[in-house]
Amino acid sequence: MAFIITLPRLGFAMEEGTVTEWLVEDGGRVEAGAPLFLLESEKSVTEIEAAASGTLRIKVAAGEMHPVGTELGEIE
């Protein structure tokens, strides 16, 4: 069963954010707790960790702004 990666809400007022960089390539192996991507909001850039282990499948490119809750990819 795949774990769906969504754009998280980092603050109460956060409505959208930008994945500035994926730290694991599409198809790469990721371990739970390891750095997965950098997320830029109005106030900061935050390193987001993987919530599961498996193979990363990226669905959105780095550099694009998306609303909170957008499906960014999955870990299979």
Q: Between the first and last Cα atoms, what is the distance in angstroms?
A: 7 Å
Helix count equals 0
Count of extended strands: 8
Mean pLDDT across every amino acid position: 96
Beta-strand residue fraction:
over 45%
Which CATH class?
Answer: Mainly Beta
Instruction: Pick out the low-confidence regions.
Output: none
Structural class: mainly beta
Strand adjacency order, main sheet: 1-8-6-3
The helix-strand sequence is: EEEEEEEE
In short:
The protein has 76 residues and is an all-beta fold. The chain has strands at 3-6, 16-22, 29-30, 35-40, 45-49, 54-58, 65-67, 71-75. The protein has a four-stranded antiparallel sheet with strand order 1-8-6-3, with no helix packed on it.
What's the structural blueprint in terms of helices and strands?
Layout lengths: L2 E4 L9 E7 L6 E2 L4 E6 L4 E5 L4 E5 L6 E3 L3 E5 L1
Antiparallel strand pairs: 1-8, 2-4, 2-7, 3-6, 4-5, 6-8
Describe, in plain words, how this protein is organized in 3D.
The chain has 76 residues and is mainly β. It has a single domain, classed as Beta Barrel (OB fold (Dihydrolipoamide Acetyltransferase, E2P)). The chain has strands at 3-6, 16-22, 29-30, 35-40, 45-49, 54-58, 65-67, 71-75. The strands form two sheets. It has a four-stranded antiparallel β-sheet, with no helix packed on it. It has a four-stranded antiparallel β-sheet with strand order 5-4-2-7, with no helix packed on it. Strand 4 and strand 5 (45-49) form a beta hairpin. The radius of gyration is 12 Å and the shape is globular. The termini are close together. The mean pLDDT is 96.
